[in-house]
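Entry 12.
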Amino acid sequence: MQAALPRLRAGKVYRTSDLEKWGSNPTRLAKRLVREGQLQKLQNGLYYRPRRSSFGPVPPRSEELLRAFFAGSPYLVTGSARWNELGLGVTAVLAYPIVYNTTRTGLVRIGKRQFLLRRVRFPKKPSREWFAVDLLENHGLAGVSLQELEEGLRRSLRAGRLDGLHLQEMAERYGTRRTQERIERVRGSLSS
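Predicted 3D structure (tokens):
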């Protein structure tokens, strides 16, 4: 007798281990579900249930790929989209997002997407000020000059879009000494 097929949500990414609740051999079940068109294989141990559109199957969202890839371990996505939202007057461009996490470092491909993983400390709830420090730390990777960033920070601090004390605190907790000094200099130039 064949086991009942699991109810799989469209757009969700599954690890092989997620299928254990529907069968004693989750690897065999995953292969069967791929054969029957219920799942598509992303890479070893990762599968997804495609959402359908009028143009065909829709790949999973990046957030869903990362949720399954890290399997409950904390992570934080940063990069161009987050940095450009700061309104510092610069446009950062990265080919792939940076994902801070507690387990791995390196450039990885999950499905058809690439992510730059970095095993570093990061806050559970990052603030705008933390993302500003993050951009300063990654300015070279983002293709942004430090002079432009400093001027953008001055404007944002003057306009009250960033909190100077919190910015300094984030630099002290998560930035290098150079970043800390740069922020001190920017804040000092506002009082003179």
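Annotation: Residues 64-191 form one domain. The helical segments are 26-35, 62-70, 80-84, 128-137, 139-142, 146-159, 164-174, 177-191.
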